[in-house]
Structure formats: C-alpha cells, structure tokens
Backbone:
C-alpha cells in the first residue's frame, strides 16, 4: 500500500479543514446547563399549568404569593378591609402543598386570625381547617 504525501497545498487544505472542525466544537457543560434550565422551566409549566382563578381573592392570592407577602383584601363575611400575610408553603402529611396565613381585620384590630389553605385535587387552593391552634 502506498502512503500519500501531501504537498504544501494539500497541507494547507488539511489545516483549514481541521481548523473548521475545531470551530464546530460541542458546547461546554455550562452552555448546556443554561439551555437546560430554560427547557426544564418550560416543561414544568406545561406539566402543571397555573390553576384558574377560584373567584376567592384570598385563595387566589395565596396560590401565588411569596412567603411573608401581604395584601389588602376585603373580608368576604363583613366586607371590611383585611390584611392577609402568606406563610411558607410546605408538604402536609397528606402529601398536599399547604400554607398558613395570618388575617388581620381592620374591624377588630389586634385580633389576628390564623388560617390554612391547601392545594386541591385540581391544582386549585382550598381553605382547610387547622388541626391545632397556633401558639403566638
């Protein structure tokens, strides 16, 4: 078998080809991770879309609030202004996502009430009863 010899022109062409191949190097792991995080977020929102509004301003607020976030709402029973503060979201023993909240009524200052809301079966949030009173 004969070995092929490259002349100066062949060597130049080979260098250009090899240089072009190295310019097409695969992306780094950091680049892949950046692209993957966006894909994961898109997939997560497609799997569990945001629940439709329930019509209950308290539950709608708690469904998307950050822990410690507060909002002025109207008390559904009296219509009085109510300041609701969202607690942290946690997994209850039932496996559902739940969060406690504090409601302070302008009609009864200093008489804050603790409440509990949990994720329902359809991804919506529902009011739930506290099993034990919360100590101050």
Residues:
């Amino acid at each position: 078998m004969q070995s092929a010899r490259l002349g100066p022109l062949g060597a130049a062409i080979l260098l250009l080809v090899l240089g072009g191949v190295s310019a097409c190097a695969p992306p780094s792991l950091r680049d892949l991770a950046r692209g993957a995080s966006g894909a994961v977020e898109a997939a997560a929102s497609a799997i569990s879309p945001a629940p439709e509004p329930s019509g209950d301003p308290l539950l709608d607020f708690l469904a998307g609030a950050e822990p410690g976030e507060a909002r002025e709402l109207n008390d559904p029973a009296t219509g009085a202004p109510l300041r609701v503060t969202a607690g942290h979201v946690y997994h209850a023993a039932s496996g559902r996502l739940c969060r406690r909240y504090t409601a302070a009524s302008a009609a009864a200052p200093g008489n804050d009430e603790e409440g509990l809301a949990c994720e329902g079966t359809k991804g919506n949030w529902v009011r739930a009863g506290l099993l034990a009173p919360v100590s101050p």
